[in-house]
Amino acid sequence: MQYEIMGGTLPVVVCRLNPGDEMMCEGGSMAWMDDGIVMNTEGGGIGKVFGRMFTGEKMFRNRYVAQRPGEIAFASSFPGSIRAVQITPDRPVIAQKGAYLASYGNVEVSVHFQKGKGGFFGGEGFLMQRFTGQGLVFLEIDGSAVEYDLMPGQRKVIDTGYLAAMDASCNLTAETVKGVKNVLFGGEGLFNTVVTGPGHIILQTMPISNTAAALYAHMPHSNG
Predict the structure, then answer these.
(1) What is the pLDDT along the chain (224 residues), one digit of tens a residue?
(2) Residue 108 placed within a domain
(3) Number of structural domains the chain divides into
(4) Which residues, in sequence order, are bridge partners of residue 91?
(5) What CATH number does residue 167 fall under?
(6) CA torsion, ordered 219, 220, 223, 224, to nearest 10 deg
(7) Is residue 81 included in any domain, yes or no?
(8) Which of 23, 34, 66, 172 is most buried, by CB atoms within 10 Å?
């Protein structure tokens, strides 16, 4: 399978499949495809179906199988970016809710429960997505993606909502913003997310919650 990400801030990933190649995707993500690619909708067990629902995904996924060479395209549901992330048995990846777009290979998607202060106050929530197995997963990123490789013990302090994905080897927690004036007037809230290496992280420049708040401020509101 070969792929190309195109489309700028309204991105799509175009995958070129050989006979027998299979792709999985979030329901409704397929934008177009060549004739000769067959779709089959799958749910899995009850636990998996409800796990997807709690992490912001559709309850069912679609499997596309190429019967002959052809293209299939998966479009992002929100203006931003698409990132291809390699998953290996020794490199599981954790991502924000709703990040999953499509995957190739033997990639298992499950619920990740974020424990401790990171779940309570880190801004990413208790429920995230965990990707394991062997293959390639395409993630939706809000805005543009900025990536870092953290060394062991290296920390990155991140505002709420700006963490898109990280290697499972990273540790996520939260810390209080110091100083009363900083909390009251700094505009950054009470807590920041802290990710500690080793591992690779993907940050996003415009979380969807920030976009929604910015649009809401310019919408007419009824006084009644």
Answers:
(1) 999 999 988 999 999 999 999 999 988 899 999 999 999 987 654 445 455 455 455 567 899 999 999 999 999 988 899 999 999 999 999 999 889 999 999 999 888 776 654 444 444 455 789 999 999 999 999 999 999 999 999 999 998 889 999 999 999 988 876 544 344 434 455 678 899 999 999 999 988 665 555 554 556 766 55
(2) yes
(3) 1
(4) 88
(5) 3.60.160.10
(6) -100
(7) yes
(8) 23
